[in-house]
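Predict structure. Chain length: 703.
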Amino acid sequence: MNRKIAKSLGVLLLLTAVAITQIPASDVEAVAVASDFEMDGNKLMRYSGTADVVSIPDGVQEIGEEAFAGNDNLIKVNIDGDVKSVGYRAFADCDNLRTIVVGDNVEEIETAAFSNNKELVNVNLGAGVKKLGTGVFAGDSQLKDLAVSEDNLSFHLSNGILYDSEETRVYLLLPAYEKGAYTLPGTVTEIAGYAFWGNPYLEKVTLGSGLYEVPAYAFSNCANLREVEIPLTVRGIGAKAFEDCVNLSRVTLPDSMAQISDTAFDGCPNVEFTATPGTYGAEFAAARKTSEVEEVEYEDVQDAEVIDANTVTEQTDDENADETNLQTPSPSSGESVEDGIDEGTELSPTPEPSMKSVTETISNKTILGQSSIVSGRAVIFIDNRQSKVLDGSSQSSGRIDLSNMESVSPGEVEGVSDNQETSGQMEKIENQLVDNAQKGKNFPKYTIVNDTKIASQAFYQDSELKEYEIGEGITEIGEFAFARSGLSSVTIPEGVTKIEYGAFYHCDDLTEVTLPDSIVEIEPYAFEKTPWVEKASEPFLVAGDGILIAYHGSESVVNIPAGVKQIGPGVFKEHAGITAVNLPDTVEVIGEEAFMNCRNLKTVNGGENLVTVKDRAFMNCPLSKVVIPSSMKEIGLGAYALLNGTDTVVFEGSELPALSMGKAAGRISNEEYRTFAFANLKTAIIPEGKIPEGIGSFEGTVL
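Prediction complete.
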């Protein structure tokens, strides 16, 4: 009998084995094994398996940062057993993950833990979850259903929105929930960052009367959001709060509004604001039409005026006192501000040159250029896009055609310091231009300066320009040289060392850029609003001689790649998710506004070989410590004007760095940029034995 049972069982097992081999492989669930889990104590650091269904093993109390991130095999995960917390981006970017079951013992799910899972459709939250980070489900474009345990006392789901139990905080609108309009209840006092991110069905939002702030990225990428009504209680709107809401057309800004990030409405081309005249909201709406780079573009490129040289230079010495003693140039001059500031220089707002008697005689602004006295120098600016200009005489009302005249850019006409010589020099230049134009002579477009520089604005708005070969000997590319042109690709040859402000700004078709190792300086906005920067596939875009141009990652702890020598201007500006940065030993320069308004950035490690930290590099960051290494030579205005950070700076070197100032701070419109390098810091510590000689005066230093 026993022998028969054994034989029957053997046959049954054999048949079962054969049957299993006939099942298609895709229908068999691969199950994780213990060796797939890399542990550090009770923390799961990394899962290396290929199973499509994973249950977290017993004994795991914490799932670490990005432990499963990018695993495309995973279809379903059960987070149960002893797990209490799920770390930052633990299951992000899992392209085939469809189901997540969070057990009752899990108490915390950190920021972006399940983000960017395009196939995720089923989520169950257990009874024990008490804390959710921001953007936990951001980018989960198929998620429209979320089940919350009836025993969960911390969260409440209503009409696709996950609230806390008392509906005072909005955690998220399910990314695929199909409802067009929402009026948030008055009980809501807080919206989490990324809460409404990417919902394509959202069309109108009326925020509740209990809300104080619209946080960073709250409504980013809501492509069909058209209207937003903001109540009187709201006082601020954070960075990129409505970024790329491309159909947003109407936003009501209340009288209470006191702070709106410059990037709050980036990528909203058609938005119109309703605001009471004279309020901050109205001022923001007016100012938004010209961002900093657009304001520079307007002042230096699009709104130039021809002013009679005689009228300017016939002012008396007393009348010229302000102009001849300026420490920084006026914005209309376009002159570069020296990086170093002479000892004794006052960083006070610079008055504009007095031109009232001149400008009152000019009624038409479609004119060619502008001449003026700046810091004792005569400069003339020519805008070669204008076809009709005033002639050189203030008495003449006639117009002449200079459409083919040379384009002389700011700073590219040599000036002289003596007023009498200046008058003659400018008169000679102006008369020559007018005489030649009246004789009908054509002049080639002015594109190259001294055979070494592509002139500022040389190909500005040239939509026909698709390709351009930069010749040998060129070392610099001027301000706005190719801005808003039709360039689709450009190869910058070896030997070019500098690309100036806005050089390729808003080249909307520019997808390919090749930069040589000879590039050592790239000024702000040089490649802003180009597909090459905005659609880069890698998180770090590094070019030239180790210059970090752009960052597209989402990590809270950013590890700058080895080999990077410079962090370019504004690379991490207003990145709300960054909490710490690790600098490699190769970094020598941190550019203007590189980390400005990173309001969660508390820790910066490394930087042992830093030489220069430029203007506003860490402005408004809550850094927990500031240590200036002995290698530091220059620190810019407002570089460490911290917000809610440490009040102490520690110098390690035997000499204090010099104070420097970038171009932006020299513009009259940027008065707020002219602030102390260490504004808000109260104490400077110099280690014993390293007190600089003559430290009492501090002249010429950052202190």
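Summary: Confidence is low (pLDDT under 50) at residues 1-29, 303-445.
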